[in-house]
Design goal:
- It is a single chain.
- By secondary structure, the chain is mainly β.
- Helix content is 0%, strand content 65%.
């Protein structure tokens, strides 16, 4: 589920960077385990997370993003 009003993001230089501050950012692996988390930020460092497919979940006052991503 991606609410386009919520925010946009891009992966660059070992980080996922959002266009606006997020209340929370969470990254889950294919088994559903939380592998990364950060609160009240515009980015999360993913340089220590192995390559693979993950679920990115974030929220800000305008909405929520829940999307599969490849790292």
């Amino acid at each position: 589920v991606r609410n386009k009003a919520a925010s946009t993001f891009r992966v660059m230089n070992g980080r996922i960077v959002f266009s606006s501050r997020q209340s929370y950012i969470r990254i889950y692996n294919a088994q559903g385990q939380l592998v990364g988390q950060k609160n009240n930020s515009e980015y999360i460092d993913v340089s220590n997370i192995g390559k693979g497919i993950y679920v990115l979940q974030s929220r800000n006052p305008k909405g929520q993003i829940k999307q599969k991503i490849a790292l």
